[in-house]
Amino acid sequence: MAGQKAFFYNQNYCVGCHSCETACMVKNQVDVGVSWRTLDSFEVEINGRMVERYLSHSCMHCAEPQCASVCPTKAYTKREDGLVIQDHDKCVGCGYCIYACPYQAPKMNPHTKKVEKCTGCYDLIDAGEQPMCVRGCPVQVLKIEDIDKLDAEGAVKEAIGFQAFATNPSMRFVKMKQ
């Protein structure tokens, strides 16, 4: 059985180029105005200096996905590797999943009037490759790994701009340098 996959992100070295967002949009043919992966920026004080730090995030593929628990059409399933997949054909656009997700990962597409979200590029993972957002990062600060391995190696569950909620998100970070 495959272990729970988690996105692993190094905020210390992200340059804020948005390549992860762009790679995701191109690979998945995401409509303009909808973003499955987002890059936020934060100004924080480190060693007496104000510096900019970034947070690249998408669906957290939570251990306890609230999107799946509230969906009236059962459009969400959780794979053995922990990726939370939405069957777009089953979506009726009610938006319950958007409101249930503490990370607002599911997005309403204004053109289709249906919800959509990050798939973790399960097709690439099934082929033994990394997701497109990971492949698109020029400084290699984003990857996907087995969550148990990341936890054993000292990855942390929270970072600047990110708080872990009860849904148990499958996102880990390199400890922030001070």
What do you see in this structure?
GO terms for molecular function: 4 iron, 4 sulfur cluster binding; metal ion binding. Residues 5-35, 50-81, 82-111 form the 4Fe-4S ferredoxin-type domain. It comes from Desulfitobacterium hafniense (strain Y51). The chain has 178 residues and is α+β, with helices and mostly antiparallel strands. The chain has a single domain, classed as 2-Layer Sandwich (Alpha-Beta Plaits), CATH 3.30.70.20. 20% of the residues lie in helices and 24% in strands. It contains 6 helices and 9 strands; from the N terminus they run βαββαββαββααβαβ. It has helices at residues 19-28, 66-70, 96-100, 122-126, 132-136, 147-152, and strands at residues 5-9, 38-46, 49-57, 76-78, 84-86, 107-109, 114-116, 142-146, 171-173. The strands form 4 sheets. It has a 3-stranded mixed sheet with strand order 8-1-9. A two-stranded antiparallel ribbon has the order 2-3. A hairpin with a 5-residue loop joins strand 4 and strand 5 (84-86). The termini are far apart.
